[in-house]
Fold Cell division ATP-binding protein FtsE.
Amino acid sequence: MIEFHQVHKTYRTGGRDVPALQPTQLEIASGEIFGLIGHSGAGKSTLLRLINRLEEPSGGRILVSGEDVTALDADGLRRFRQRVGMIFQHFNLLMSKTVADNVAMPLRLAGIRSRSEIDARVAALLDRVGLKDHARKYPAQLSGGQKQRVGIARALATEPSILLCDEATSALDPQTTASVLQLLAEINRELKLTIVLITHEMDVIRRVCDRVAVMDAGAIVEQGPVTEVFLHPKHPTTQRFVLEDEAMDESELHDDFAHVPGRILRLTFQGDATYKPLLGTVARETGVDYSILSGRIDRIKDTPYGQLTLALIGGDMAAAMARLQAADVHVEVLR
Ligand SMILES: Nc1ncnc2c1ncn2[C@@H]1O[C@H](COP(=O)(O)OP(=O)(O)OP(=O)(O)O)[C@@H](O)[C@H]1O
């Protein structure tokens, strides 16, 4: 478990104080994938880099598995950092070293001398990230996605229990992003690794994260399970991220509906409710007719969900709404 107790950070540059993180209380459970989302300058990198003390907090305490990492001396910090891997947006590979040597680097730094042990561990790591035939290549000969896989192998070399991902997919195209996220999810499952990732894309959060914190101006403004935060966003910043992900502008949509008769509802359903033939049944039972104005059926990590905007006309409207709510559908009246 990673715990932040009233942790805050102010940078001092050019005689000026730049507040980057307001006093923050946060708990990240062991084995989960925790996402931090926010716009540029929101404080995501600062929060992430405080976990392995690449940034020193201005105050507060950070505990990892109960150990106060803010109190570690240089030697303790060096050993602690072996338990925390990190990957970066621009990969940070050594361009003059081969793929195998890049992955071997943390092992050498950790004091492992045996050539055969290093070779065996590097081979296993490269196999795990799908790069077993690329060991002798140089980073310049690899695609962006392959470079990030080298970054992941290198980060896993010392068998850490935490992996920090700093915009790890921001430099990648959508297809490569999906395959790197899938690799992170597999590693999380197989190695029971805690992953903390930062991103400015809700899609990344939706695909792999269990829980999310939304950051704005140096503070966490909303946090919770991704299903909850994504389907029922409360803070305006969260609502904007969700709308960006849906690639639709709510106000535009409302203009389109202006001429549609009837009551307009947004239905949100998740899990088993997603695949039930509910709408037809409710329409038959209550005499209500409906037209679907917009909708999306997708997944949040492993949970299927749907969000439909409907116009309801005629019949017993109150009974229809009660029937939907009784079937675990979240009903929001838009008009
Ligand atoms: N080393 C530094 N010195 C001074 N100010 C800094 C430093 N690093 C970050 N800041 C400032 O702290 C605030 C938070 O920055 P941070 O990089 O944590 O945000 P972010 O959400 O990660 O942004 P981005 O997505 O652009 O990386 C910003 O106002 C930034 O300018």
Remarks:
- The first strand starts at residue 2 and ends at 13.
- The mean pLDDT is 92.
- Residues 11, 13, 18, 20, 38, 40-46, 200 surround adenosine-5'-triphosphate (CB under 6 Å).
